[in-house]
Structures are given as structure tokens and as C-alpha cells.
Amino acid sequence: MTDPLHKYPRPPFEGQPQSFPGKTGKMSPEPDHGEESYKGSGKLTGKVALITGGDSGIGRAVAIAYAREGADVAISYLPDEQADAEGVKQWIEKAGRKALLLPGDLKQASYAKEIVSKTAEAFGRLDIVVNNGAFQQPGKSLEEIEDHIFEDHFKTNVFGSFYVTKAALAHLQPGSSVIFTSSVNSKHPMPTLMAYSATKGALSNMVLSLAQLLAEKGIRVNGVLPGPIWTPFIPAGMSEDAVKSFGSQVPFGRPGQPAELASAYVMLAAEESSYTSGALITVAGAMPVL
Q: Which end of the chain is more exposed for a tag (fewer CB within 10 A), N or C?
């Protein structure tokens, strides 16, 4: 049994600035995505999953977990993240499952439709959609946030998720699952992440609406609200001082690792959760989110 307070590194961390979206290999300490720790038990055998933003961070951990649970996995990612995506592909195939790499930009409706159709064509079906791809850029003041940056937050985080989910409906059968990565920022917005927090509020709201809208089709819709998680978004989207103390604000006193969220996504996608829809599950080191 491991003490969760000391299972992973605690702040202070070293300053490590990166440009968005950040590279996993440049982080210190490097995040744990479950490469060596996640053990599957066949919960998703025979399923096909599409994960946006599946090259790094939470998406990478979910891709590895899904493959070890028996699913074939397609991941979308920005073209600049090809090296990270290739690494995920290797882990999926090492688990004995098929992988499909889909580089592109979620801001484009045509790309969102394309990744859905390519996934269904390659694997013959689509059972799980994880809307995880996101954009984040901080701003110290409202004046500092350029119009196009504000728009990019919504185009990627909200519009991209809408495009993908809408396109997926042509392939999703009763029993399928759609999962959104929202954030504790949807309930506790940060002033320096005003645009990002607003998009996460929209996504949480979409989960609750879509769960009702798609209930008659037998499609479940849920969301995960991560707290501070150690991903490339952190050095790429926060000041050096914020990075050094990252995670210290929650009761656990440390950031979560992507691997610590994978089980929530597995649970929400599994057949055993057939009555779970419209849920927003917080994974935030005892941070209260109401």
C-alpha cells in the first residue's frame, strides 16, 4: 500500500519554460502515464476508441490504459507532436492492440469529421470518444488576451469537441460512451486562465446537456474534472514561479500524474458503468469542488 501524498514527486519543481503545447521529454520530472504501472483486466475488449489530444498528458495515459484493457485506439494530435504520438503508438502496439495516428488541428471542422471517419474505416466501428484535446494560454489581464487567442481556446476546446461528437453519432451504437475532459476550473475558474476556464465551464455544461439529449440513443456521456495534473501544459502555459509550486494548493500537496486519471476514463467507458451518464467526476487530490 502506497501513501498517495508521497507516491509521486512534490513541489518545489525546477523552472522549465516551454512553448505550447510542450514536450513530454523536456519535463523534469517526466510525467507518469502508466507505461510501467497500469495493469489491464479486459474491461474494453473488442472496443474501438478515439482520443483527441492522445499524444501526451492525460490523453496519453488514457490511450495506454485503453489498449491494455483490450481496445484498439486512434489518437489525434497537433502535427508538431508527431514524436510523442509515435511513442504512444508503440505502447498501444506493445499491448497487442492496433493504433491509428491522426495528426491535425481540432479547430477545423473538416479535420474533426475526418478523424472520426478514418477511425471507423480503419477499425470497422467506433465505441468510445474521448474529447481531451485542448488549448491553454494564460493572460495576466483582460487587455493582454488577444482576440484570436480567446477564439482559439473555444475553437479547440469547445468547437472541436462539438465537431467530433456530432460526427461520431453516425457510428456510435447503443452502449457507446462519450467522455469529455473538463477541469476543476469549470467550478473554480482561475483569473489568469480566464479563457481556458470559460471553455471548461462550457464543456461541463455540454456533458450535462448531451447526456440527456443522447439518452434515447443509449449513448452515455460523462466528464472528468482533473485538478492540477503534471502534463506538458504546465511548463508551456504557466509562469516559472507557478510551475515551481504547482500542485501545492491542493490537500495532497502535489500535482497528480496522468496515470492517476486513467482509471476514471476506463470506468466511464466500461460496460459495468451502464447506468452512469451525466456524471462529472473530480480527480483532484482532495480539492473540494462543488
A: N
Question: What domains lie within the chain, and their CATH numbers?
Answer: 24-283 (3.40.50.720)
Of the residues 66, 111, 163, 196, which is catalytic? 196
Taking residues 125-142, report their average pLDDT.
Answer: 95
Give the start-end residues of each E strand in the chain.
48-52, 72-77, 99-103, 128-131, 177-181, 220-226, 280-283
- What whole-number distance in Å separates Cα of residue 76 and Cα of residue 50? 8
How far apart, in whole angstroms, are the C-alpha atoms of residue 77 and residue 54? 6
* Residue 269 scores a pLDDT above 90: yes
pLDDT tens-digit profile of 149-185? 999 999 999 999 999 999 999 999 999 999 999 999 9
Task: Please confirm, yes or no, whether 196 is among the known catalytic residues.
Answer: yes
3-state SS string for 145-203: CCHHHHHHHHHHHHHHHHHHHHHHCCCCCCCCEEEEECCHHHCCCCHHHHHHHHHHHHH
How far is CA 124 from each of CA 46, 64, 173, rounded to the nearest angstrom? 11, 21, 12
HSE, CB side, 13 Å, CA atoms: give it for residue 255. 26
Interatomic CA distance for residues 170 and 42, integer angstroms: 26
Rounded CA gap, 112 and 125, in Å? 17
CB 74 within 8 A of CB 115: yes
pLDDT (mean) for 10-33: 91
Q: Which amino acid is at 222?
A: N
- Neighbouring-strand partners of residue 221: 178
Q: Is the pLDDT of residue 290 over 90?
A: no
* Whether 249 contacts 185, CB under 8 Å: no
